[in-house]
Design a protein that fits this description.
268 residues; single chain; rod-shaped
């Protein structure tokens, strides 16, 4: 697959993963049943063309290694996606906590510095909600695009060498809280770039197709058994795809982390 093909596949995966859970579910079930119907039709057509004896020779034991490999793949994909979603949620919470602590420590600063911290925090949150979240949902945002609202505050506080006593201690605590918030922001932007790659989805689909093909071959003589078994497995594939795809993009997928924790930091 060329570069343009990979770009198209990646864009399609981002589009699907950015839909609501209902839309993702409908797409997953439609794709799974469509592939099942295509394999059913292909096997039936080939059997009528004189290949039924070859299909009958297929051993049911063939399903065992295929099923094991497919189950392991689903487990590995889930082990990547679900913990990543929890990390995304924890990162937003840490970012909000750092901002909240910075506002708390800023109450002990001089009025000009207190206003500077509050304006910087508000600019940071506004940029995160209005710029970063839509871009993260679209899958085209990186750490290099982070806003500099907190950066200006840190520069001003670190450049102040006239403070002493309690005021200096408050500045140090404020700086550390803002640094924690910035570090959490960088982690959030990094996590937003992680998702299940196209090659993994390709292997997932190939394995699912091979299992359905084997099922259709083994039950080539018994149409009703073949249909029921294929539908059961196709449903399992659709549900597995939904569970992975819905959590694939933690900031813009079917189940996503919202910026509510950040907006709650701002005073009402």
């Amino acid at each position: 697959m060329g570069r343009s093909g990979r770009v198209i596949v990646a864009a399609m995966l981002v589009w699907v993963a950015s839909q609501s859970a209902l839309v993702i579910g409908l797409l997953c079930f439609a794709w799974s049943y469509l592939m099942c119907a295509a394999i059913y039709g292909a096997v039936r057509f080939a059997a009528r063309r004189g290949h039924e004896a070859a299909f009958k020779a297929a051993s049911p034991v063939t399903l065992t290694p295929l099923a094991v490999i497919f189950g392991l793949l689903v487990g590995f994909l889930a082990a990547d996606v679900w913990p990543n979603f929890e990390r995304a949620r924890n990162t937003v919470g840490q970012e909000a906590l750092g901002l909240r602590q910075a506002l708390l420590f800023a109450d002990a600063l001089a009025p000009e510095e207190r206003r500077l911290v509050r304006d910087g925090v508000q600019e940071h949150i506004t940029h995160a909600v209005s710029v970063e979240w839509p871009a993260m949902k679209a899958g085209d945002h990186g750490p290099r695009n982070a806003g500099d609202g907190l950066g200006k505050v840190l520069t001003a506080l670190l450049a102040d060498d006239h403070a002493g006593g309690n005021r200096r201690a408050a500045e140090e605590h404020t700086v550390r809280a803002l640094e924690r918030a910035l570090d959490a922001q960088r982690q959030r932007l990094f996590i937003s770039q992680t998702s299940v790659s196209g090659i993994k989805w390709f292997v997932f689909m190939v394995l699912a197709g091979l299992i359905e093909l084997t099922i259709a071959m083994i039950h080539v003589e018994n149409r009703s058994t073949k249909v029921i078994t294929l539908l059961i497995f196709a449903t399992a594939v659709a549900v597995s795809t939904l569970l992975i795809m819905a959590y694939d993009r933690p900031f813009g997928g079917g189940v996503s982390v919202t910026p509510a924790a950040l907006t709650d930091v701002l005073p009402r």
